[in-house]
Specification:
The chain has a five-stranded antiparallel beta sheet. Helices cover 28% and strands 19% of the residues. With 141 residues, the protein is an alpha+beta fold. Helix 1 crosses helix 3 (89-96). It has helices spanning 15-27, 48-56, 89-96, 100-109, and strands spanning 36-42, 70-75, 79-85, 118-120, 134-137. The N and C termini lie far apart (35 Å). It contains four helices and five strands; from the N terminus they run H-E-H-E-E-H-H-E-E.
Length: 141
């Protein structure tokens, strides 16, 4: 037994499952042309303060243990933009979706998620002139 049992309750529209399906589907894909994965998650109005609190707690899994080089989260009024960078990033993030810690974190976000997440394969979604609300970079060199 690796930890306490987790009871997963669905969102009113099943958004946690949609995020999981979206990211676990990536684990089977190869994206050799990109070491970056950008996931945009729509936010409900009035949730930015709560999202900042959640981000201040840090990621539910150690990004280094996932094989990431860096991980940033940018906030806009209506969405959180998660940027993951590293070799085989889609596979690593997809595998992470199977861990209980990530599901527990998803449950903490449930009142803030306002719609279906989307993956953007271009860097245009990342605000070029703004600082991330959360940032982590590997110290391995």
């Amino acid at each position: 037994n690796e930890g306490p049992a987790v009871q997963v309750t669905p969102f009113e529209s099943g958004l946690l499952h949609e995020i999981a399906d979206l990211l676990t589907g990536l684990a089977s894909e190869r994206h050799s042309d990109s070491d970056q994965l950008v996931v945009a998650v729509p936010l409900r109005p009035g949730c930015l303060a709560r999202v900042r609190e959640l981000l201040a707690m840090g990621p539910p899994l150690d990004p280094a243990s996932l094989g990431l080089d860096s991980h940033d989260v940018y906030l806009r009024d209506a969405e959180a933009i998660f940027v993951f960078r590293g070799r085989d990033v889609a596979a690593h993030v997809g595998k992470a979706m199977r861990t209980p810690a990530l599901w527990r974190a998803g449950l903490a976000w449930q009142d803030c998620i306002g719609g279906r997440p989307r993956i953007d394969r271009s860097a245009r979604i990342v605000p070029g002139d703004s600082e991330p609300a959360f940032s982590w970079a590997s110290t391995a060199g």
